[in-house]
Design a protein that fits this description.
heterodimer; A: mainly alpha; B: Rossmann fold; Rossmann fold; 17 helices; 22 strands; globular; disordered N terminus
């Protein structure tokens, strides 16, 4: 359950922007920046994790804002901007850490997020301990996925968001403000991705190391595709991936005479095996990655 | 101009001095427009005349460079479709602005406030859609997925979107494209019902016949200006055509306005192109063309009618060797061409005018001369082994530019700078300037102005006289009725009937096109 959170948060963030037609490819960079800022925020305030989380979220929002500005207002290529933001995030994460902490022999530590047992439910035999004794962000990720699902499929603004990603001109012609939708979705998506980054030092390592995200950002793009850009499928996809990852870790620890590299591959292979059959008929927002310019001569 | 005889009532809409330029191209120049209450106002004009641009400005999609809009007598600032909708203006675009993966109801309610706050009120919306549909004869199931609806139903959805927002002024841009004659009649019935309830309708079209048949008043646009407005009953095709094209076309001698039923000797030539049991499977695995058989004789124009997307594109591309056929055989003059690739099909004597000239027909960055020889460049006189004889290419290009009156500074000009009509002239010059046995022409006049259309028709008939077989695939029934010796109708990938010229009847064709009748 622990490992689920960064995947869910980052993938849902990717999904939000993608549903508005903005294909964010800077997750890895945003998560690194979020991890760095989140760690420093907590470390410098003497272990105030909330402050770290808030700052990481703000960092993610700034990245989202930059992505939205360059693509929606300046109409630059989404991939180019996304990759640039990835490199900026990568650089900033290391830079900030070096500036604030410098090079030390023993890494500075912060406390990790406490687990909260849900009253009553955590006493259910077997399942209770596993499912209902978690840190706050695990519950947060589950609730978030549920809220996003309801938002996307039953609310008016959710319908507008989906419309903007599918056919911005149709949405525009019915009075939906396409740039505003794209900005909001990308900024909120960036917040989630930044939060996903901050989760890593606060739960796993208690410290920041270079490249702490270790490809989870890139993986979240794949999980978003596997989840068909739908909040509920993304959640279950991430859950499945995280479960196999933990399983692989256990196998590795017990040791069954298989080279550990093979075991490390397991989550990726298993996820692909499960998702492949569904992958073919999954929906991708039709306008994903494309900018919209109302006055360009209509060539649809 | 005549003022509406409405004491005390300001006209619902007035546009004055509207100018709009796209880069160096001036689309509208001091255009004005005046709509009365409770009328169907036809806005007639050729391609590029500015009618759609004018209405897009009214709907807030384009910002005008100059000019003003008055709604109900008061100046209105329309900066976006939201503003336009707020002023009671609705628009049905030529290319439907619908989200195919959504249901009808989702498409309709998109962007409207819900009575339940953030939550969508779908059942309420469906109820409202059903009521509106019943009132105006726009039958459609609100729960259907838009992607699964036929063109006619999708059009009704588009109109319902405007009515759902209480539009008082409804703009329809070329609404009859791709409709069968029966559907056109139904559409006009619905428009009448709307006018009776006090809605004013602007009806953009390039078809004179339609403007004459249904409109209370007609305005004609040419080169970015309104050049004429007449009462429907005072209009005649001659008046409208003169306004449309200026004095470029001799109306009395024009092919375009000749009687479509004019008798014509029945061609009895040998089969030039023979197709048997041709089938094509779409990339998604569904059959797109099923067991299609046809014969085009020498000196004959075989028309293929049908609503777009019923297998026409697959038929043409399979014949040209651009798309692989799943089954069936093709002969040209007795030589089998089954499965031949495009180069061999062209070399065998088939000329081709593709439907989408921008996508399939030409190289925008190559120059005019290179485009003129494309596909014929491997053989003499242009090709010499692996090399091209450039002097010969440019000589030929200069000749063709003169003969086909292609408006361009010269053969070295980049093709991307040509206008739509001139690109089509390049296509024609390329297809016609090489000896051919069979011409396959797919929507050869789509988007062309009147003189260019006339030019295409003349060339097609010349080729027919010269004894070539012509397969004319078109979505324009008038065009088919005018040019064809026989018309075959495709519906869902099958030829459902073939009519000889004496039996031409647009309603019979319409029944076949909508799949309600089996023709013989």
């Amino acid at each position: 359950m622990l490992t689920l959170v960064p995947y869910v948060l980052a993938s849902q963030g990717t999904m939000l922007a993608g549903r508005a037609g903005i294909f964010n490819v800077s997750q890895e960079g945003i998560m690194l920046a979020g991890a760095s800022v989140g760690f420093l925020g907590a470390y410098l305030s003497g272990g105030n994790l909330l402050q770290g989380l808030v700052l990481a979220t703000v960092t993610g929002a700034l990245f989202g804002l930059a992505l939205a500005y360059f693509t929606t207002t300046l109409k630059m290529d989404q991939f180019v901007v996304g990759l640039a933001l990835f490199f900026i995030g990568l650089a900033i994460s290391t830079l900030l850490y070096r500036l604030a902490v410098g090079v030390t022999l023993t890494p500075p530590l912060i406390p990790t997020l406490r687990e909260i047992a849900l009253p009553g439910l955590s006493h259910i035999p077997v399942v209770g301990e596993i499912v209902f004794r978690q840190n706050v962000l695990v519950y947060g990720a589950i609730v978030l996925s549920l809220i996003l699902y309801l938002f996307l499929y039953t609310s008016g603004p959710g319908l507008a968001l989906r419309a903007v990603g599918e056919h911005p001109m149709a949405a525009d012609s019915l009075g939906v403000n396409v740039p505003v939708v794209r900005y909001v979705a990308t900024v909120v998506g960036g917040m989630l991705i930044g939060l996903a980054g901050a989760y890593l030092p606060m739960v796993y390592t208690a410290t920041f190391t270079d490249g702490i995200v270790r490809g989870r950002g890139w993986l979240s793009i794949a999980l978003t595709f596997f989840g068909g850009w739908s909040p509920h499928l993304i959640f279950f996809g991430a859950l499945f991936f995280a479960a196999v990852e933990v399983l692989a870790f256990r196998v590795q620890v017990t040791g069954i005479g298989v080279p550990y590299q093979v075991i490390l591959m397991l989550p990726y292979l298993a996820t692909m095996a499960v998702m492949m059959p569904t992958f073919r008929r999954l929906q991708i927002p039709a306008f994903l990655g494309k900018n919209y310019d109302r006055e360009r001569r209509m060539l649809l | 101009m005549l003022r509406a005889g409405q004491p005390g009532g300001a006209p619902p809409l007035e546009m004055r001095g509207v100018r709009k330029a796209f880069g160096p191209v001036v689309a509208l120049d001091a255009a004005d427009f005046h709509l009365r209450e409770r009328e169907i106002h036809g806005l007639l004009g050729g391609n590029g005349a500015g009618k759609t641009t004018l209405m897009n400005i009214l709907y807030g999609l384009y910002r005008p460079d100059a000019g003003e809009v008055l709604v109900g007598g008061r100046p209105a600032q329309i900066r976006s479709p939201r503003d336009a909708l707020g002023h009671g203006i609705g628009m049905v675009h030529q290319h439907f602005l619908q989200i195919e993966s959504f249901t009808v109801a989702h498409n309709v309610v998109l962007g409207t406030p819900s009575s339940r706050g953030l939550r969508l009120d779908l059942s309420g919306a469906e109820e409202r859609i059903r009521t509106l549909a019943a009132r105006f004869g726009l039958d459609v199931d609100p729960r259907a997925l838009v992607a699964e609806l036929p063109i006619g139903a999708r059009q009704r959805v588009e109109i319902l979107k405007a009515l759902y927002r209480d539009a008082r002024i409804l703009i329809l841009d070329e609404p009859t494209t791709n409709l069968t004659p029966q559907e056109v009649d139904a559409l006009f019935g619905s428009l009448r019902a709307m006018v009776d309830e006090g809605i004013s309708v602007v009806f953009i079209t390039h078809k004179i016949r339609e403007a004459l048949n249904v409109c209370d008043r007609v305005s004609v646009m040419r080169a970015g200006r309104r050049v004429l407005s007449v009462e429907g009953r005072e209009a005649s095709d001659e008046v409208l055509v003169r306004a449309l094209v200026g004095e470029d076309v001799d109306v009395r001698r024009s092919l375009l306005f000749s009687d479509e039923r004019a008798a014509r000797p029945t061609p009895a030539g040998r089969p030039a192109l023979r197709v048997e049991g041709l089938s094509v499977t779409s990339p998604q695995g569904a059959p797109a063309l099923r067991d299609c058989s046809l014969v085009v004789r020498e000196g004959e124009v075989l028309g293929i009618a049908g609503v777009a997307g019923n297998g026409q594109r697959e038929l043409v591309e399979a014949l040209m060797g651009v798309r692989a056929a799943a089954g069936g055989r093709v002969w040209l003059d007795g030589t089998e061409l089954t499965g031949a690739e495009a180069a061999r099909v062209l070399a065998a004597g088939v000329a081709y005018i593709p439907e989408d000239r921008l996508q399939d027909g030409f190289l925008p960055k190559a120059d005019v001369a290179q485009n003129l020889i494309l596909g014929f460049h491997r053989r003499p006189p242009y090709g010499r082994g692996p090399w091209l004889d450039w002097p010969a290419v440019y000589d030929a290009a200069r000749r063709l530019i003169a003969e086909y009156r292609i408006r361009t500074p010269g053969p070295h000009e980049a093709a991307v700078n040509l206008s739509g009509g001139n690109i089509q002239r390049v296509m024609l010059a390329r297809a016609f300037s090489h000896p051919c046995r069979v011409l396959i022409a797919h929507n050869p006049t789509r988007g062309l102005d009147v003189p260019s259309t006339e030019f295409v028709y003349t060339k097609l008939l010349e080729l027919r006289e010269a004894g070539a077989g012509i397969l004319l695939i078109s979505e324009d029934l008038d065009e088919l009725l005018l040019l064809s010796d026989r018309i075959a109708v495709v519906y869902r990938g099958q030829i459902v009937g073939t009519l000889p010229r004496p039996a031409f009847d647009r309603y019979a064709l319409g029944r076949l096109m909508s799949g309600v009748a089996d023709g013989g």
